[in-house]
Design goal:
Largest sheet: 5 strands, mixed
CATH superfamily of the largest domain: CPE0013-like
Strand content: 35-45%
Number of strands: 10
Helix content: 10-25%
Distance between the termini: 55 Å
CATH class of the largest domain: Alpha Beta
Length: 118
């Protein structure tokens, strides 16, 4: 039995998850999304990342970015290391790809701001 707090919606349900052979029993959730989250957490937890990358623009030293899709939870540190290596050297727009297919995960790191757009 595992305890888990759902992070999908503002309810923050405290759930109990019990593995029963090949099936998973979830209790304590107030909505279907909580059950889906609990099962996903047990089988293959995924997360999204929002962060910043360095730029070489003195007035805008960092640029906000995020992943284009959820990534495996156990890859967060690896992806953050790749983000921290990056330095933006040219003006970009919101949605522009900063790192394509990061670590071969079929996920891009994209800009979430137009602050460098001329």
């Amino acid at each position: 039995m595992k305890e888990l707090v759902c992070i999908v919606c503002p309810n923050g349900c405290a759930m109990m998850i019990e593995e029963m052979g090949t099936s998973i029993k979830v209790s304590g959730n107030q909505c279907k999304r909580g059950e889906e989250f609990a099962v996903s957490e047990m089988i293959h937890p995924m997360r999204t990342i929002c962060s910043t990358v360095k730029t070489n623009f003195p007035k805008v030293p960092v640029l906000p970015v995020r992943v284009s899709e959820e990534i495996p939870k156990d890859k967060i540190s690896d992806v953050m290391r790749e983000i921290n290596k990056m330095v933006v050297t040219k003006p970009i727009s919101i949605g522009d790809v900063i790192i394509e297919n990061v670590l071969g995960l079929n996920v891009n790191i994209i800009a979430t701001s137009n602050i460098l757009k001329e």
